[in-house]
Design a protein that fits this description.
The longest helix is centred in the first third of the chain and has 15 residues, at about 25-35. The protein is an alpha+beta fold and about 270 residues long. It contains six helices and 15 strands. The chain is elongated and about 65 Å long. Strands 7, 9, 10, 13, 14 and 15 form a six-stranded mixed sheet that branches. Strands 2-1-3-5-4 form a five-stranded mixed sheet, covered by helices on one side. A hairpin with a 4-residue loop joins β13 (about 240-250) and β14. The protein has helices spanning about 25-35, 50-55, 70-75, 80-85, 110-120, 210-215, and strands spanning about 40-45, 65, 95-105, 125-135, 140-145, 160-165, 170, 175-180, 190-195, 200, 205, 230-235, 240-250, 255-260, 260-265.
Amino acid sequence: VASARADWRPPSRVLFPDNLLGWRQAAGALAELRARWGAGERIIADNFMLAAELAFEGRAREPVYALDHPLNRKHGRAGQLGIWGLDGRGIGEDWDHGWLVVEETATDLALRPRWLREICERFPGAALLADRAYYGGRKRFLYYRLERGGAAPCDLPAFAYLDAPVGDQRLRGVVEVRGWAFEDQGGVRQVEVLIDGKPVGQARYGLSHPGVQTLFAGSTDPNHPAVGFAFELDTGTLSDGRHWLSLRTRAADGGIREFDPVPVIVENGEKPGS
């Protein structure tokens, strides 16, 4: 019944481990992209577990290679991947085009930009064709089209974070929405605030937030340290009850990225004259 409601959103919590989530969706999206853009000679995942899941869903008709992600070593899989020839070295040079699926949420937030920069160094010119999130953002996958020997630059996504408000915070009156956003290479130009998927205004972007550059050492966004944003949200324009607050960034290179919504609860009470 809930899924038939227009305002329904996937629950932010489900009662089984993250490792069991998203693999069917990831494989399905990859199949759709390959049907549209061409199969390519290589399928690569950024970590061993995703590689195994893609191979399983594809009934292992094609080998799926895994990049040398720290998870491979943490779980003791790096050596076995090497024996099978399915690690980063096994990808080889006898291919022209391929696909790379990056499970963004498998890497800690503080390490994601650096990991993606390493991927782009290995695959110059990699084109980001899809960005898909599932289960309230617990799983997010990036789909890259690869060309061996491609020319830089590679597509790097933006990153953004809400410092306030936090999830399930109760809001009344005019509330400050604040946080940070950056994109390696060209940087972010604009941050929009959305309520229930609809834009409600453009945030003031370019506020000083030096802690971001400290946390994400090596970030190449030219805006650092001015990557903070703020927006005054008038909750009087919203109905009481639960709403979904999210962000949308627009980068200097024209790239647009929408981030996972955060639930907030508006409690203005009855309006005068009602």
